[in-house]
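Team,

Forwarding the record for the chain on the shared tracking sheet. I've put the sequence and predicted structure together so nobody has to dig through attachments.
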Amino acid sequence: MNPAKYELHEFLLTAENELHDSMRELPRIREFIEDLPKTAGSFRLKQIDDLYQPSYDDVHMEFLKCWPMHDIYAPSAERVYVNPNSVHAHTYTDVVIECDCGAVLSRNYEDAHNSLRNEHEHSDGCLPHWRLRARSEMTKKRYHLMHRLGRLGWKGSEMAPRLGAQTQAMGPYANQFNTTIGEMYAPYRKLAGNTYRYLVHYADETGETVASIYGHQEQTLRKWAREYAEVPLPDALTTNSDE
């Protein structure tokens, strides 16, 4: 079976299409994040004992539902991540746009009338169409981010703080893009189902191991594999297999 023919969460795999050993630490990192106090706005991977930090890219942290803190908040030589459960997580959105005039803009629902943060920093010579373009780029960046996060398993309530938005605004916001949060999340089920089936049936991993990495119940991944996966079962198994 050639895994390259199917959509998988490839960031979990090695170049040889095996589960990367460092991914076995993801449950421990997830637990660390969940245990952070809500007053902690950020964290660094070096806070986790005996963790080899270079093994993890931003996509792995996004898989754990957090995101890198933008340099406008905390310029740092090392990667700093936003605590997604912080009461102030929405103030650290990394959807940041630079206007042609040089103003750096972001959006936060606490800002009056949902205006762009730092909008007063536009230069005196900023042209009207530059400001319109900045707003358009903000919307486009949010659109692409929401679709990408959906494929990583983010639900609307988890996307909201990263976008600087309120949870109840996510459904209507997705509707503006002629889609729904559910439709954005749907590809994740197929990707997770494909990856689960591949790792369990072709890479000799246990369902328990894969489920712990995903942070789901094993029965959920088995269900998604049955209903959405495109990776075929080995010939030795029947189509009625319970995975």
